[in-house]
Amino acid sequence: MDGLHLCAEWHDCAATALLRDRDTLREAGVRAAREAGLSVVGEVFHAFPEPGGVTGVVLLAESHLALHTWPELAAVTLDVYVCNRSGDHSRQARQVLATLRAMLSPARVEEREIMRGALGRPPAVPPASPA
After folding, report:
1. Per the UniProt record, which residue ranges are transmembrane (predicted)?
2. 48: which DSSP letter?
């Protein structure tokens, strides 16, 4: 379960028409994941009636990409979580986020990185100090 969870809130997106476009957002999410080298295993995207936001998930063998748009606010929230016992996919997760950020062109960006999976581990033991 070790992995990187990226959480993004993008405001004042210049590409406001895209925030209503379910098909383009689905294609962009799938393409961004594949181009980053992640394994897409499914996807579901839903468009809401006016004001027409979209919610969607791209399921990855490594975990998921989820996005939610608010066209009336020119805003997007987005999560990319990668966890895989076979390797570190942090670079790929950051690439997905960067690709979608470039496409939607937010003027204001809030992003956080959460390292997941440390709950069951004992705390690190500090090195012994010299006597």
Report:
1. none
2. P
Residue ranges of domains in the chain: 3-116
Backbone angles phi, psi at 100, to 5 degrees: -70, -35
Composition of the chain by helix, strand, coil, percent to 5: 30, 40, 30
What residues act catalytically?
A: 63, 68, 83
Strands 40-47 and 75-83 turn out to be unpaired
Helix (DSSP H) and strand (DSSP E) numbers for the chain: 2, 6
Q: In which element (H, E) is residue 68 found?
A: strand 63-70
pTM: 0.86
Rounded CA-CA distance 46/11 in Å is 21
| Model pLDDT for residues 74-108, shown as the tens digit of each residue | 999 999 999 977 789 999 999 999 999 999 999 99
Label the pairing between strands 106-116 and 3-13: antiparallel
- Output Rg (C-alpha) for the chain, integer angstroms: 17
Topology of 3-116 in CATH? S-adenosylmethionine decarboxylase (3.60.90)
Per-residue pLDDT tens over the stretch 44-55: 999 999 989 999
